[in-house]
Amino acid sequence: MTDAEEICCAAVSDGTRVARGGNHDNARAAWMQAYSSRNIGACTSGFVTSTGRFVGRGEAAKIAFAAGQIREPVAELYSEDLCDQLNMLHHARAQDARKART
Length: 102
Prior knowledge:
The chain is α+β, with helices and mostly antiparallel strands. It has helices at residues 24-35, 57-66, 83-101; strands spanning 7-13, 18-21, 44-49, 54-56. It has one domain (7-101). It is built from three helices and four strands, in the order E-E-H-E-E-H-H. It is globular and about 35 Å long. The chain starts with 6 loop residues before the first strand and ends with a helix.
């Protein structure tokens, strides 16, 4: 892995809290599980980066292109653009978290 910031997972945020997932549907489901339906309508879809930042779709597109995660520049990034890669990363991190709890 390089030191360059990369997109790690899809996420939704209300500006204070963030829920993550392998795609935005999974992130919304994680939000609903963690916070019920509170403010789900006010959430912004975006991504979490390798530095832990939540970024919107536009900034995520620039980061993903600079990191070589997508081949062509796009105005906004969608989880489908990185779906396989994000799902693998999300599942690996979830597995690591489960191992750490045992």
